[in-house]
From TrEMBL:
Pfam families: BON. Residues 1-26 form the signal peptide. PROSITE patterns: BON. The lineage of its organism: Bacteria, Deltaproteobacteria, environmental samples. Residues 30-99 form the BON domain. The keyword DNA-binding does not apply. This is Putative Transport-associated protein. It comes from the Bacteria. InterPro entries: BON_dom (IPR007055), Lipoprotein_DolP (IPR051686). Keywords: Signal.
């Protein structure tokens, strides 16, 4: 089980808030709540991936995942977790593989 420090969790929340659009048509409070719900699910200790570098945003129920992971297989597992969150219409991933050690 992965333990995430309070500092890392606070940093992730800060990244989400900074990544939220601040121009006309900014994300609604329901989009912000949905992005937070997805982020919480991705950060759960029972997951077999590290989502600490993933930024989650939402626009009209479409979840956008951005960042990098160590293994290619983590991307699909993150997308699957995000899709299971109530209210998510679809998931668009722009996650890069920082270092593909085995590509699982």
């Amino acid at each position: 089980m992965r333990h995430i420090s309070l500092f890392a969790r606070a940093a992730l929340v800060a990244m989400i808030l900074v990544a939220a659009p601040s121009f006309a048509g900014a994300a609604s409070s329901s989009d912000a709540a949905l992005a937070n719900a997805v982020s919480d699910k991705l950060m759960e200790g029972k997951n077999d991936f590290d989502a600490t570098s993933i930024i989650v945003t939402s626009e009209d129920g479409v979840i956008h995942l951005r960042g990098s992971v160590q293994k290619r297989g983590e991307i699909q597992r993150m997308e699957e977790v995000a899709k299971r969150v109530p209210g998510v219409k679809s998931v668009e991933s722009q996650i890069d593989v920082a270092q593909d050690a085995g590509g699982k």
